[in-house]
Amino acid sequence: MVVPSWKATASIHHLPGGTPMTADLTRPRPPAPTGLLPTAPTFTLTSADLTEQGRIPDIFTGVHDNVSPALSWSGFPEQTQSFVVSCFDPDAPTMSGWWHWTIVDLDASVTSLERGAGASDLQLDGAAFHLAGDSGDHAWFGPYPPAGDGDHRYVFTVSALDVDTLGLDDEASPAKAAFTLAPHCIARATLTATYSVPGEPGAAVFLRDGK
Questions:
Q1: Among 3, 6, 86, 103, which residue's beta carbon has the most beta carbons within 10 A?
Q2: Mean pLDDT of 64-77
């Protein structure tokens, strides 16, 4: 199990990391991030642990055991030379969402990640490696939304690239990886699941749809 650098026990009165929540986080729900990306052909991404639009089991969250889920993909172009795997939360209360997981330079022969593969680079094949997510960890960091925020979406994406490496080092940010891969992405697969942490009983959630 990965122990995140700022992991703390969930509380209905605190944000992740134990910071007391005193501000009103009410805000509109952002659009789906995949709709803002350059158009690309699609292929299939599935998981033995997750379902499309389903709730993420606690074992995979930063609130609990923080184990990365299993992923498997198929139907990508024959000319694929590498993959980038990521998980992004567009609903975090920031202007840039929250990156939970980014693996780059995954060889085109790799078509799945076992449960727990996000623990460290030692679980990855070949030259693949993790970039530090917004938690600061070079590993998977599972969902840990603010209590009472409502369902956050966690967008798992596998990007098929026409290059075997992005030429990044492990100090690069996930945002830099996303920018660098854009002109090399020849196909994309996504799976979106959700997670929430309960807030005060009877209180309205902060994320508001359609406003």
A1: 103
A2: 99
